[in-house]
Amino acid sequence: MMTWYSPFDLSLGQRMHDFTYRDIAKMIDHSLLQPTLTDDDLDAGCRLARSYEVASVCIKPYAVARAAEMLAGSGVAVGTTVGFPHGGHKTAIKVAEVSQALNDGAVELDMVVNIGKVIGLDWRYVADDIRAVVEVAHAGKALVKVIFENCYLSDDHKRKLCEICGEVGADFVKTSTGYGSTGATLEDLALMRKYSPAHVQVKAAGGVRTFDRLLQVRALGVTRVGATATPAILDECKARLGIR
Q1: Any catalytic annotation for residue 110?
Q2: Can you give the residue ranges of every domain in the chain?
Q3: What is the mean pLDDT of residues 20-25?
């Protein structure tokens, strides 16, 4: 595979790509969370993720152990959800979910904030809730992506959540579950990148279904994307790069 680092090659007089296939594939968390997915569907999703060499699968919690077995040695990480999809679980339950996921082989965890507590401005509760998950996850060498569900929040809420996530050591801030009324908007992604510390990465979820859209969010500083349209995105990437 050829790798280009300059967006413009003067000798050829044409625009060149500043990414490789691996750069793009390793931005994708292949989502396997739809409520109707069967065991066979989940297995097929893991095989697809392995064939495209994506960053991870984000799979239903009960299927983590099976996914870990199927993806062992592949370079595709296994992730799952915590407090999904509404964030209203007690903190102790979220921590128990983390412990179970770690025992089953998960190394990435997408947790939902307590949305009502955010809207109610109970920032101490929100911070303690996220911190508890982060501490247990990091002790198990797992990453934590904190889901805001931005469709319910004001910009002030989002800015404060970015600040809290930086303070408690979260690894990512994430726009949405993909099941709210809206997903990842360019405006929200720009805001989250601006107000998150440099050590906190940004994940877009909901609405990134094409390669061009992925490039748009990438240009804003997004490093992970939750996607169900993985084949469409990565097949187009291969086509643009001339990979067969």
Answers
A1: yes
A2: 25-241
A3: 98
